[in-house]
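Q: What residues go here?
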């Protein structure tokens, strides 16, 4: 199962999220979009998910904090306990054996980042 993880500022637009996802490799073959659970209800994220016909998976900050990420942001680490919300969410949602296939890509306006992981879905 292939999942895109998204990290974004609360006021990111659908265009920002789409731009980050496109920069990470696009939506082809995705089974879901994932992010930290307290942002899973963001209007822009829900709109993008609806546009793509994908479910949104909210991952708790506690689970994200347990996942080692390829890149590390000290700001994100201090706030969420993980080096990258996008990477950790993608890995957590893709399931057992998940690995990143797109490490991290930012939108041009720097409001959103995306990473894509593939795993067995469990």
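A:
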């Amino acid at each position: 199962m292939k999942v895109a993880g998204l990290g974004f500022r609360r006021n990111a637009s659908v265009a920002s999220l789409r731009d980050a996802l496109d920069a990470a490799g696009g939506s082809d073959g995705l089974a879901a979009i994932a992010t930290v659970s307290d942002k899973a209800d963001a209007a822009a994220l829900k709109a993008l998910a609806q546009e793509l016909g994908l479910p949104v998976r909210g991952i708790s900050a506690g689970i994200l904090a347990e996942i080692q990420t390829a890149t590390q942001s000290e700001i994100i680490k201090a706030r969420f306990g993980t080096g990258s919300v996008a990477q950790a969410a993608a890995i957590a949602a893709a399931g057992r054996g998940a690995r990143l296939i797109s490490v991290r890509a930012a939108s041009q306006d720097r409001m959103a980042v995306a990473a894509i992981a593939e795993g067995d879905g469990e």
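A: Context that may help when evaluating the design: The two ends are 9 Å apart (CA to CA). The mean pLDDT is 93.
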